[in-house]
Design a protein that fits this description.
This protein is mainly alpha-helical. Helix content is 44%, strand content 10%. It contains twelve helices and nine strands. The protein is elongated. The termini are far apart.
Length: 253
């Protein structure tokens, strides 16, 4: 971290990516006196040796590291290999060629890592609630364009993966449900429901998203109200006797 921070702030990448000279062969021959221009060692080094510091406190090879943009840092936190260093100018961005966007596997990896990073009561940590909803938002936008391979990846993950429920804990996707016709509170905690923000609930791709993540969608039409015993409600009958004359006048006018 200290090395790259110091070097990036004080030098140009042109210095460490410029071709160098390799000497070879016998004494007094052109290979020894003039040498040949070859690719610099440093560009190879960052692609093959884990030398790039990341926010997850591990060094990684450059091709697997995400650029440290504000958006990526906000959603990734400490869970993904985001470059841990100064903001990069264009030349340095071109030199490292870090990844500039999250992919589907990154989001699934985030789910997996956040679901095990919980407090002592088994609840989601406060700073991760917004992160989970941001992941949902991103996937709700993308799921309409997922390929068959993407869908298979998600559905395989969902067999054992965990999603946030309304108790702020994580449950297996296969037991989590979503009531699409109203407030799930009417079920009085008989089921485990997915925790979604109001914005995410209004996404046009919600059902597609839930289906791929193996979340069961409940509908009002699937349920019937069955009374267990009949009882005369005298208080209601008395109130109706008072109200009906006024109700009649209102209807007539």
């Amino acid at each position: 971290f200290k090395f790259w921070s110091d070097y990036i702030e004080n030098f140009s990448p042109n210095i460490i990516k410029a071709p160098t000279t390799a000497y070879w062969g016998f004494e007094r021959r052109p290979g020894r006196t003039r040498g040949d221009h070859v690719e610099n060692f440093v560009p190879w080094f960052i692609k093959n040796i884990k030398c790039i510091p990341t926010m997850s406190d591990k060094c990684e090879v450059a091709p697997s590291v995400l650029i440290n943009s504000a958006d990526i840092k906000a959603i990734s936190g400490k869970y993904l290999p985001v470059f841990n260093g100064p903001e990069l100018i264009a030349d340095w961005r071109a030199f490292f060629n870090f990844r500039t966007s999250l992919e589907l596997l990154d989001y699934l990896d985030l789910f997996s890592k956040i679901s095990v990073d919980i407090d002592e009561k088994g609840n989601i940590k406060n700073d991760n609630y917004k992160r989970i909803q941001s992941i949902y938002s991103a996937l709700l936008l993308q799921c309409a364009n997922w390929s068959a391979a993407d869908i298979a990846e998600v559905e395989n993950w969902a067999i054992s993966g965990l999603l946030l429920n309304t108790n702020n804990q994580f449950s297996e996707c296969t037991i989590v449900k979503y009531f699409i016709d109203g407030n799930e509170a009417i079920f009085q905690e008989q089921y485990c429901f997915i925790q979604l923000s109001a914005e995410n609930k209004n996404s046009p791709n919600l059902e597609k998203f839930l289906t791929h993540f193996r979340v069961q969608v409940l509908r009002q039409s699937e349920f019937d109200l069955i009374h267990t015993q009949e009882e005369v409600c005298l208080d209601l009958k008395n109130k109706l006797r008072v109200i009906i004359p006024y109700f009649k006048i209102w209807i007539e006018h």
